[in-house]
Structure formats: C-alpha cells, structure tokens
Design brief:
This protein is α/β, with parallel strands linked by helices. It contains 9 helices and 7 strands, in the order E-H-E-H-E-H-E-H-H-E-H-E-H-H-E-H. 42% of the residues lie in helices and 17% in strands. 38% of the residues are buried.
C-alpha cells in the first residue's frame, strides 16, 4: 500500500542528489512540507513552495526539536577529500554529521533514508568506501521505525565543484553509454534516478530495513 510522505526533513539539500530530491518531493502530491537544513540561505530553495529553510552554520547544532514531527528524514549529505581539505574533515562531514542526524531521527517515528555509496564497506582499503561502510554499520545498529540505504554507483551530472576523475569518467561514459547494458551493476546513474528511488522507498517500503543497490536504482520506475 502506498504511504504518504507528508512532512520531510533533508540534509544535504543543495547537493547534486539533494536538489533532485527536493524537486521530487515538491512534485509528490502526498508531501505537504519540506524542511531543508542548510548552512546559508539558498535562493534556489526559496523557489520551492513546500520548502522551509532551517539555517544552521554547524549541522551538529541540529537538535531533537528540529527533527521532531517529520514522517521522513533524508540524508544526502556528503563531501570530497579535496573540498574537505583533509581526511579528518571529510570524516567529520560524512560520518559524524550523518551519525548525529541519524541519532536524532532514531528518537522519532520517522523513516530514515541515507544516501550511501556502492562499495561501502567498513573494512575497505579505500578511505571513502570505508567511511561510508562505517556509517552504514553504525546506522544499522540504531533502532529506526524504518531504515533505507541507497547505494548508487557513479553519479552523472554537473556538480558545483569539479571532481577531476568523475568528470573524465562521465565524458568517457557518454561516448560508450549505448554499449553498456542495463544489467551492468556499475552503470552510472543520474541524481534524478537516485532521488526517485528515495521517494519510491519512502512511499512503498514495508520492511523495517531495506538496501537499494545500484541495480535497484536503475530498475525502479
């Protein structure tokens, strides 16, 4: 049975997937209001009728009152080593802030949906995948009303900041995309596909816990 999203709170709302999610929630008839947690006022988000911006210079200032009374909580927050400046700063954003948000959501009846990554593994030799895996392991140890993990492969689309490797892979993929079958589990996906998967999970998931891997993201219509 299709559920209602009604009231949602989003962190990472101004990123590539976050903005796609805001658009999807804005167009979802069951969604009545969207709280977008941002560090500074966003003129882009101001253009959405359902969005209220909660401006916090530090997301660790989020408290239980901010998160209460939402039916769904979406985390699209993430950074890069280049933008963060160090592994410690990257960990502060990708792990600690997301973990803090998850801990607050756990105290509510909200469905928590986390944007993770393909290859997330807390024993990975790759720092990025290891941090994502540690975060997944932690949130799975918490007790949510419902939990969804979204694990996309490479994301297609233009980011505000340059990502050298991703930019080159995207250009190569655009040349070869017609040779890549839909069954290829590493096939890049668009932010819209990821956002659509998050909304579909919010509306239709009945299990307490579900993981949506890259193949699932490609298949969900």
């Amino acid at each position: 049975m299709t559920k209602s999203i009604k009231s949602s709170i989003v962190i990472g709302a101004t990123g590539l997937v976050g903005l796609a999610l805001i658009r999807a929630l804005e167009n979802e008839t069951s969604c009545e209001n969207i709280t977008a947690v941002v560090r500074t006022f966003s003129p882009v988000l101001q253009g959405y009728k359902k969005v209220q911006q909660l401006i916090l210079a530090d997301f660790l200032m989020l408290n239980d009152r901010d998160v209460a009374n939402h039916s769904h909580a979406f985390s699209c927050l993430g950074t890069t080593l280049k933008k963060a400046g160090s592994k410690a700063n990257f960990y502060d954003v990708d792990y600690f802030i997301n973990a803090h948000f998850a801990e607050l959501v756990q105290q509510t009846d909200a469905h928590y949906l986390l944007l993770s990554a393909m290859g997330a593994n807390d024993h990975s030799a790759f720092f990025y995948n290891r941090v994502k895996g540690e975060l997944e392991s932690y949130v799975k140890s918490l007790d949510f009303n419902q939990l969804s993990l979204i694990q996309p492969s490479l994301l297609l689309g233009e980011r505000a900041e340059q990502r050298f490797l991703e930019d080159h892979v995207q250009k190569l993929y655009q040349r070869l995309s017609h040779f890549v079958p839909n069954s290829f589990k590493y096939k890049p996906v668009t932010p819209e596909q990821v956002a659509h998967t998050m909304v579909a999970a919010a509306l239709n998931q009945t299990a307490k816990f579900e993981t949506y891997d890259n193949l699932a993201i490609q298949k969900i219509k």
